[in-house]
Amino acid sequence: MDFKIVLEKLVSAFDKMDVRYALMGGLALGVWGVPRATVDIDFLIRRDDLEKVDRIMHDLGYECRHRSENVSQYISPLNLFGEVDFLHAFRSASIEMLQRAAEKEVHGGSLRIKVLRPEDIVGLKLQAIKNNPSREYSDTADIRQLLAVSPENVDWNLIKTYCGLLGLDEMYDEIRGGLGK
Q1: Is residue 101 located within the same domain as residue 44?
Q2: What CATH code is carried by the domain that includes residue 55?
């Protein structure tokens, strides 16, 4: 997959069609300074924009392989374009994540893209752990690395809120304690 080409095409189309989006997943970790191997691109989008996204993806030659209330997955028959996954924002917490997204430069400044803030990436990783406890080891490692990049700028109250919402209060102490706080 050529991440640069795919991101340029998608971000250009999202901007043109007024799609509310933010990069998440492995590429978002990389934007914030945590290199992570990944094979796909993950976005959070407003569920209200799903028809626009579907049109964009089909115009680029992608096929929708899966769609549910919460997620959709598109795969291109061309290896160059790979797989793109979308998490649908329709609850207040995920809509607020989109509103907080930061615009960042990627690929040497050749592209500006909206990226979830580190705290919101942590929130989604905590949700993934809650839904699938077998992910705890790898996702906790991602969380620690992400927050260690710039711990003085972390909104710890937001992370504590996510832990509380998910019934993972002990994770907050583990994460914060692991960073020497």
Answers
A1: yes
A2: 3.30.460.40
3 CB-side CA count, 13 A:
16
Q: Say if residue 91 is in the same domain as residue 21.
A: yes
pLDDT tens for each residue of 127-142 = 999 999 898 888 888 9
Please give the pLDDT value at position 103.
Answer: 95
Global pTM value: 0.89
Region of 61 please: left (phi>0), alpha (psi -120 to 50) or beta. left
